[in-house]
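We modelled the chain as a single entity of 252 amino acids. Its sequence is:
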Amino acid sequence: MKKSRFNSIFTKRPTKCCCCIPFRPGTIILCILLFINGIWNASIFLSEIAAYSQHTARGVPVLLGLFYFLVVPISIFGIYVTSKKNEKLIEWFSTLFWISLSLLLVLHLIDLILFFTWKNDVISACQNDLSYFVPSNSSTVQVAFDPNAFTKKQVDDACVQAVNLSLSWNLFDFIVFKAIVYFYFGAVVSAYSKNPTQIPTDVKINTNPDKEKNDKMASGKQELSLDEVKGDSIKPNDSIKLVGTSRTDFSI
């Protein structure tokens, strides 16, 4: 069975970032994106803990915010070592990059599992928060009947659909935008740490000097033999016949 050409994406070390950007500028771009992502997510998880922690333990969003905050200096360190082209520092950055991404993936996975586990609690909280949409005549104040008012079933169904949609999006976000993208960017940084100079692929370098020397000697012998043949093939007093409009014999 013929293997797909896309299998090389997962079986071979990448040679460029995003298939078209050289390693060094690609790593700098990744560090800038990591810096922005760290600030953005740290501000979300640390500032909206009360709203976010309805379906998970309080410690999970706090840890996510702290780890995203620690990603910021790692990204700055990555920009610095990439500009300096220090192989040892680049290896350290690659290690820190993988550690930070792995911890973030573990925490996001825990958060996703808790979301699925406490799905019914989230639905109940949603229904309680939106209960004011349903008119009630239990108070002393009589509320006029409104045919366009939401019923309790409509509110409950809307909460169920909203929670299911949120779970689907969180699962898709974890698999595509976190797991796959994080691992690919980590592979790019690791590949750059193994070859920070990044010799262009279109420049062929002869790694066997003996072969190059033998090729030069063979070429020299071939030129010498051609000169000997030319010298021996034409001798004095030989007749050379030139064919043209007038058939004339010339003698040397």
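As a brief sanity check on the tokenised model: The chain has eight helices and two strands. Residues 3-11, 199-207, 240-252 have pLDDT under 50 and may be disordered.
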